[in-house]
Structures are given as C-alpha cells and as structure tokens.
From TrEMBL:
The keyword tRNA processing does not apply. The lineage of its organism: Eukaryota, Rhodophyta, Florideophyceae, Rhodymeniophycidae, Gracilariales. One of its GO terms (biological process) is ATP biosynthetic process. GO terms for cellular component: mitochondrial membrane. Pfam families: YMF19 (PF02326). Signal peptide: none annotated. Residues 2-67 form the ATP synthase YMF19-like N-terminal domain. It comes from the Eukaryota. It is found in: Mitochondrion membrane. The chain crosses the membrane at residues 12-32. Keywords: ATP synthesis, Membrane, Mitochondrion, Transmembrane, Transmembrane helix. This is ATP synthase F0 subunit 8.
Length: 135
C-alpha cells in the first residue's frame, strides 16, 4: 500500500509541521495582537460607559432626594398654615361652612392634575404647523 510508505509519510509530516508552524507564527504575530487590542478597547469603552451611567444615576438620585426633602418641608409648612388658618377661622366663626373651601381646593387639585402633570405634558409632541403638512 503506497499510503504507508515511509518515504511519503515523512515528507507529509515535514510539510504539515512546517506549514502549521508558519501559520501559527503569522496568527500569533499579526492577528492575535489586533484581536486582543480590540477586546481591550471594547472593555474600556464598556467600563467608561458604566462609570458615566453610575455617576448620572447617583446625581439623579441625589436630586430626587433633595426634591423630596423640599416637597416634604413645603407640605409641612402648608399643612401647618392650613391648620392654623382653619383653626383660627373656626374659633372666630363657630358656624363655618367649609363646603365652599372644599370645592375650591378640589378645583385646584383637579386643574393641577389636568394641566400640570409633567409626565403627561412631556409625552405630548408638539410640532409647528409647517412640519405637519410636509410629507
């Protein structure tokens, strides 16, 4: 059988080792550094984006906390003013009809909900008339 001849097998093994070695050297010398560099750059971009996201999230949470503190403080002041005002009003006039006051407060709350809901207002897109007619 000619496949098992020692002369043919040795030359095939020689060329296999030589071609594989050259191929391996080319891959490790030229292509592997470029591949590793691209992986390193991608990792750095991901790290930088993650840091920016964390910074923005922290700033947002700090602003939300500050806003909540201000709102609670203002609500306490408003509550104290309303309690003292209504308390004084009831002391001055024993038979106070609070129905008118309740109607005015409910009207203010209704208008606030209708017209000052920023999430609702931000979801409405307003375009100039000139852009509406263009296709």
């Amino acid at each position: 059988m000619p496949q098992l001849d020692r002369i043919i097998v040795l030359s095939q093994i020689f060329w296999l080792v030589l071609i594989f070695s050259i191929f391996y050297a080319i891959l490790t010398h030229y292509f592997l550094p470029k591949f590793l560099k691209s992986l390193k750059i991608r990792k750095q971009v991901i790290d930088i984006n993650t840091k920016e996201i964390l910074k923005k999230t922290e700033r947002t949470l700090n602003k939300q906390g500050l806003l909540i503190k201000i709102l609670v403080k203002n609500l306490e002041i408003t509550s104290d003013l309303l309690v003292s005002y209504f308390g004084q009003l009831i002391k001055d006039k024993k038979g106070v009809d609070t129905l008118i006051i309740d109607q005015k407060i409910s009207f203010v709350i209704l208008n606030t909900i209708k017209f000052c809901d920023f999430k609702l207002l931000n979801s409405i897109f307003v375009y100039p008339k000139s852009l509406k007619f263009k296709d």
